Every structure is written in structure tokens, then in C-alpha cells.
Amino acid sequence: MEAIATLVAASIAAGTPMLLAAIGILVHERTGVVNLGVEGMMLMAAIVAFATVDGSGSYLAGFAAGAAVGALLAVVFAIFALGLHANQYATGLAIALLGAGASAFIGLPYAGQSLPARGDDGIATLRELPGLGPVLFGHHAVVYLALALVVAVAWLLFRTRAGLVLRAVGESPEAAHALGIPVRRVRLAALLFGGACAGLAGAYLATVYTPLWAENMTAGRGWIALALVVFATWRPARVLIGAYLFGGVTMLQLYLQGRGVQAPSQLMSMAPYLATIVVLALISRSPRWIRLNMPASLGKPFNPNG
Questions:
Q1: Closest by CA position to 9, among listed 170, 121, 156
Q2: Of 230 and 28, more confident
Q3: Domain range enclosing 276
Q4: Burial class (CB in 10 A: 0-12, 13-18, 19+), 205
Q5: Closest CA to 139 of 165, 120, 112, 157
Q6: pLDDT at 286 over 90
Q7: How far apart are CA 37 and CA 225, in angstroms?
Q8: Residue 300 lies in a domain
Q9: Which H or E run includes 15?
């Protein structure tokens, strides 16, 4: 039981960066905006957060810097995609390439460095409880923040007027504009939220989960998060399941390696990505079901001036 509890707790921690990124993607895609630059945003946030913590010693400042960098890159995306009506897919790819290249350059002085030990996470007394203690009470605060964001986004989307406005913009921006809804401002706000979430994901990855900097350390998590939102049919609960599934398979392959299971290292490395895609594809195996749940204006530019 102790080994299972440790594995589950590690799976939750491993899935948290992708959960943060995916919940931000879900919000701005619900408004009809596709941003493929999440991977680059996570990388830029990771190096900025790492450098901030390394220089200041403050993890709170590191997370704030990471979220700010993610939001800043979201503004850059919005200038081109929303302001100049550039192709959203091409703009997002440019952001991804910019983030990957710039983070590698900025991170040269930090390559191979690690941050000092932080001590144990969670609630000191409760995390020692047998069984569920490490699973429920042994995590960093950002893990609980990610869970709270999932609940808040689900409530916002389906229980509030703001969520109705957000979904209306994603379904028909023309009709929303005719009703007096500021479509571009709603989309910008959603993009800023998504950028901040991607920034938090990168900051958590570089300062808590693996407290070191390495080039391309996100290892495709931003791309998997994008696919996860589609396979989860833009539902927060399904995003949560998919993110933790990824974390679970990641930890399982490390656990099997530790138990001496002989398998090619390349196969073990690809297992989390393959398992996540296969299971989510099975969950959403009906293309018609995805089309019915997909925001109707996804990826389509909107010009209020015609």
C-alpha cells in the first residue's frame, strides 16, 4: 500500500505541469482561439523562473515571473492573431519556435545547475499519515492550485454568466458582437489566463518538479496538452484525468525500471506519450462527438469591422 500511495502521489506531481497548461488552453480555445505556442511559452517561463529563484532565492518570485512571461507571450500572440488578424496556427508555431530558441540561449549560463533543496512539501503532520497521507497532503501548493483551477474553470464555464459569454464568443463571435459583447477583449482575457497557466506550468517544472534547467526540458508536454484538450472534448474533468494519466504512466515506467524490468530505454521513454494518446483517443473515438463539442469558431479570425 505504501508503494502504491507513493506511486499515486508521484503521478499527481508529474501530471501537474500538463494539467496547468491544458486548463489554460481549454479556456482560450473555448473562445475560439488556437494558440500552438504553449510549448515555447512553458520553456520561456521555465528558464525565467529558474533564473529568478537562482538569483533571488524566492520561489514565489519565480512563479510570479514565470506567469508574467507566459502572459507576456500571450500578449505578443494576441497582437498578431487578434489585432492584425494573422493566421492563428502560424502565429502559434512562431511563438513555440521563439520560446524554444530564446530559452536555450538565455539558459546557457544555467545549463546543468540545480536549485538548493526546499525541504518537504505539503502539510507536515498530515503527510505522514499511512496510506492517503502522501497522496492528499504531501504536495507542493501549486498542485492544489491546479486542482482548484480545474474546479473554478468548470464552475465558470457552465454555471456563470461570464462562462456563457465566453462560450458564446467561441460558438459565434459575429452573433456575440451583435449583442454588444466585446469579442476581442474576451479573447484577450482568455489568452492572458492561458498564458499565465502555461507560465506556471513551466515554472513548476523547472523549480519544483525537476529543480534544474536543461534545454527543451518540457519534452513535448505543451504539445501533449494541446492534444489532450481536443481528446477531452473541452471538458475540465476529462483534462484532469488525461493529465494524471500521463503522470501515472511516466512514474510507472520509472517504477518498473527501478524494479529491474528489462525493456529498451527508448520504448520506456515513449510510453507516457503513447499511452496518453491511445487512451484519450479511445475515450473520444467518435469524430462526430468531438465536432459536436468543438467551439464552432475555433481557429477562425474575427474582424469586428467586417
A1: 121
A2: 28
A3: 2-113+123-293
A4: buried
A5: 120
A6: no
A7: 11
A8: no
A9: helix 2-30
